[in-house]
Amino acid sequence: MKKLALIFLLITIVHVCFAQTGAEPNKSHEVTGGSVIKKNLVSQFISRDLSKLWTKTANENVYGFIGDQYQRIRVKFISVKKIPATATYTVTGKSMVKTNICDFTGTIVITNIFKLQSNSYGVDNQYKNKGIKGRFVMKGNYIFAETKGQPHSGTFEGNFETSFYLDKGNSIIYDDINSDADGYANNAFTGNWNMYDSNFTQRCNWGDFRIPKSGDLDIGAGEFSPNDKYLKYGWQTVRDSYLSDNLNSKAALKEEKTEWWK
């Protein structure tokens, strides 16, 4: 296991840039929502543990797709641990497509942290007097490997973008300041899934509350809403869970909240 972790660490350290394939999307769902000061602050945060930012959101609010038909994929980070004195984090988790569940392990590497030029205080300025010291966006790359031998397994690799802020006590807080605003998103993972021992590659993106670069899958204005033409690719329960007067809504909501990774 230690040997495998070392291999992932070496791969991700050199894997700083990732060229993504696929058609340009209609919607980006970026997490920053503002201009940044172009000074890389990674060194200032190297001693801080940012791992909790990737495990805060309930899984029913993490949406993802794989492939050109926007087949739904669910991704769960079970543990994220910082490697001391580095910008690298080890990750264990699970992925699910239809009923197929795979374990994965890998790494996240932070390459950039930028401070936003101006603060936002949320809807109705509810955070204005909270003593926020600054809002930040961090970027980097990831590589996760599903366990070989499991059905339909492969590797995920690509780039991510996560936003956070510092409160008056200098604590690192997941940036949900604008969570009540239309289009709110965080933890945007954008990349590809590559099947083992094959040239077969599919686009695979996921994120908190919205999916980055999701094309015409997401037709929602205020919040994520799947396009009717993709409902058959795993999105029907998401749609049904929104509809309180639908006979299937209760069962759909229960399925969305199921801890499928346990």
Please explain how this structure is put together.
The protein has helices at about 1-15, 40-45, 235-240, 250-255; strands spanning about 35, 60-65, 70, 75-80, 90-95, 100-115, 135-145, 155-165, 170-175, 185-195, 200-210. The protein is mainly beta. The protein has one domain (about 1-225). Strands 1, 2, 3, 4, 5, 6, 7, 8, 9, 10 and 11 form an eleven-stranded antiparallel sheet that branches. It is globular. Mean pLDDT is about 85; it is low at about 1-25.
Radius of gyration: 18 Å
Strand content range: 35-45%
Going by helix content, strand content and strand pairing, the class is mainly beta
> Major sheet: size, sense and barrel closure?
11 strands, antiparallel
Helix segment count?
4
For the termini, the CA-CA separation is 21 Å
Number of strands: 11
Give the SSE string: HEHEEEEEEEEEEHH
pLDDT average, as an integer?
87
What spatial form do the alpha-carbon principal axes imply? Answer: globular
Q: Report the helical percentage.
A: 10-25%
Unreliably modeled segments: 1-26
**What is the count of structural domains?**
1
